[in-house]
Amino acid sequence: MEVRRYKWLDKILVEGDAGLRTVFAEQVAKRPTPAGDLEEPELSAEERRQSTGMMRVNHAGEVCAQALYRGQGVLARSPEVEAMLAHSSEEEIDHLAWTHQRLQELNSHRSYFNSFWYMNAVLIGLLASSIGDRWSLGFVEETEKQVTEHLEGHLGRLPKADTKSRAIVEQMRDDEKQHSDMAGNAGASELPLPVKQLMMLHAKVMTSLAFYF
């Protein structure tokens, strides 16, 4: 995948536009939603509350993923790493669109903190990328490993009856695993344990707030 390399002013404008579209606009998926052929299930009030909270968490996670990849892409040293980040970001747009669509079907809203999640993740991406491509890839690998584990856990907590949400989460889990493997194969450096633990703490704060807000 060939990536156009921008001058700094162009990059600022491009990334600002990308951030606004991620947080506020309707995203268009390139792939059809995995839930497209499934009928809307009948859910109890408690099941709907659970599905809604989980899908809002997943959508907020995809907002963070977009910000993280784009922040890392800004300071990527090699065109190959920048292209890999761009490719993963494109697939994450599908996730963003699918989870938003599912929230709309559940008559609910995106996280009210999405602007904060995005800005925070952009700064993390810039920091990771500024250290070097191998560490930046290590951050991608570990992030996607943790996300894959979160999604696996979500499948255990989503209502069995909500086949539409479950189909989306299953495909997201498979994609995230692939992104983690891609980063590892590209030469990622393993992150120190304290960094991994800090990432887990950060994710816990985000998921706890996004479930309700």
Distance from N terminus to C terminus (CA atoms, Å) equals 37 Å
Please tell me what the overall shape is.
Answer: globular
Q: Fraction of residues in helices?
A: over 70%
Mean pLDDT: 90
Describe the structure.
With 213 residues, this protein is mainly α. It is built from seven helices and no strands. The chain has helices spanning 8-24, 45-74, 79-105, 114-131, 133-157, 163-185, 193-212.
Furnish the topology, listing elements before pairings.
Blueprint: H1 8-24, H2 45-74, H3 79-105, H4 114-131, H5 133-157, H6 163-185, H7 193-212
Helix pairs in contact: 1-2, 2-3, 2-4, 2-5, 2-7, 3-6, 4-5, 5-6
Features:
globular, 213 residues, 0% strand, mainly alpha
In short:
75% of the residues lie in helices and 0% in strands. The chain is an all-alpha fold. Helix 2 (45-74) packs parallel to helix 4 (114-131).
